[in-house]
């Protein structure tokens, strides 16, 4: 029979789970209530009373480009960071000597402790000038591709630079999760693959990666959540715009929700604050949808992950 300690632990765990749901519901309710004035105000009133609100657009048309810029920057960061993070994780867990693996793991974890404003300073003061000739060459060479159409700006305070900085920021999160997942692969799976004559890479491909697929997806979603909500680094690097544009090397094309809130909030009146909270509600919905989609993907593929 369950003892008093077991019952206490069970109720504590249940209360903690319920508390998470209550906090989530409270955040959603707060955002809806505070965003409601902006959501029910006519577009002409918004443009008249809010100095930075674009003329001739309603709230949905204002939020749309911000959502696009947020998703674009986060996608760029994820595309860049995922292969690097998985490679580092595999090197630490299956290739590097133990002493080197421990040291490298410590350095990767240390990157996660660096504040975002430091990444913003690093990106704005060091990386932007460094990338200027690279982006100019890329625009001149591959400018016929819409993604790299020029002219590239100098300095390149563009969405592609932001994506690289965000990739560096989310790399330690993804790497740490993937590393721990890869270390949990049953040794019998690895030894069976090697006993059948598989090379080290074939063993990783047949045993490690299938087993760790749910963890890789979870790590990607954690990194994506960090990239979607990043504020200061984007604000300090990106030259803002409000367009639906895939031109990664042009200035004044994109802006993210979080950076726009930080930029406009200090001088916003009550209606302006409500408008910014409405954009925050959009970011909340996006993050929630991304995490639900990730959970659905993991649940659908767990039976084929090789972990059973």
UniProtKB/TrEMBL annotation:
CDD domains membership? TM_PBP2
**Cellular compartments annotated:** Cell membrane
Question: Could you provide one GO biological process annotation from this protein's UniProt record?
Answer: phosphate ion transport
**Any stretches that span the bilayer, and where are they?**
12-36, 66-92, 104-128, 158-178, 231-251, 271-294
Q: Which InterPro entries match?
A: MetI-like (IPR000515), MetI-like_sf (IPR035906), Phosphate_PstC (IPR011864), Phosphate_Transport_Permease (IPR051124)
Q: Which GO terms describe its cellular component?
A: plasma membrane
Q: How does it sit in the membrane?
A: Multi-pass membrane protein
Which key words tag this protein in UniProt? Cell membrane, Membrane, Phosphate transport, Transmembrane, Transmembrane helix, Transport
Residues in domain ABC transmembrane type-1? 67-294
In the record, what terms sit under GO molecular function? phosphate transmembrane transporter activity
Q: Which family does it belong to?
A: Belongs to the binding-protein-dependent transport system permease family. CysTW subfamily.
Could you tell me what this protein does? Part of the binding-protein-dependent transport system for phosphate; probably responsible for the translocation of the substrate across the membrane.
Protein name, UniProt field: Phosphate transport system permease protein
Gene for this chain: pstC
